[in-house]
Amino acid sequence: MAVRPGGEYAGRPLHIIWLLDCSGSMAEGGKIEALNNAIREVVPAMRKAAEGNPEVQFFVRAIRFSSGASWHVAAPTLLADFKWVDLKAEGETDLGQAFALLAEDFRNIPANTRALPPQIVLISDGKPTDDWKGALQALFDVPWGKRAVRQAIAIGQDADHETLKKFIDNVERPVLRADNAEQLIRYFRYVSTAVGTAPPGKEVPPVPVVNVVAVDESAW
Prior knowledge:
Layout: E1 12-21, H1 31-50, E2 56-66, E3 68-78, H2 95-106, E4 119-124, H3 132-141, H4 143-147, E5 149-155, H5 161-168, E6 176-178, H6 181-195
Parallel strand pairs: 1-2, 1-4, 4-5, 5-6
Antiparallel strand pairs: 2-3
Helix pairs in contact: 1-6, 2-3
C-alpha cells in the first residue's frame, strides 16, 4: 500500500524507517546475513507489540546505503503486510546519501499531517565515506527529520560511534553496540518494538542487558 505519512486513517500513522549499511565490510564475518536474519526474526515481534497499541497504524520502510543510497522498501508498508527481501553487501559507506534521500522524502510530508514523529533506526559497521555532516544537517533542518525518534546500532568494533551519536543527537539514547549475531537480534528487537511501537507518552523499557563473553570467537 503506497501511503505517505499524513494520510487519513482510523489510527494515527507511525512510520518506522531503517537505514541499513550494505557496504563491503558488511560481507565480512556474516554481518549482512545476521542483519537479514535479525529483520526476519523481529518483524513478527513488531506485529505482536503493535497489537497493544491499536490507536496507531504502523508502517515500515527501509533505505540501503553502500556506494550510493536507495530505497530498499520505498512504499510505506503496513506492518501486517510487510515482507523482507534480503540485502547484499558491496561497495562504500555513503551514509550521507542516505541522510539526503530521507531528507528529500521528509520535505514532502504535509504540514498538517496526523502522523506521529517517525522512528528512524540506523545500523552501520564502519565509517562514512562521503559528506555525511552536511547531509545530516539537511535532515535536521527538515521539521520531521528533527522531530524523529532516532536510534542507532553499531555493528562491531570498527563502527564509527561518534557519527552515530551525532545522528541520535540525544544524550539519553546511547549507541547500542552489537558484537555478534545474538546481540544484533536483541538490540534490533529493542529499537523496533520497545521503542518503535511504544504507545505515545508511555515510558520506553530500558535497554536490554547483553552478556559479554570474555573470549568470543564469533565477535565482529
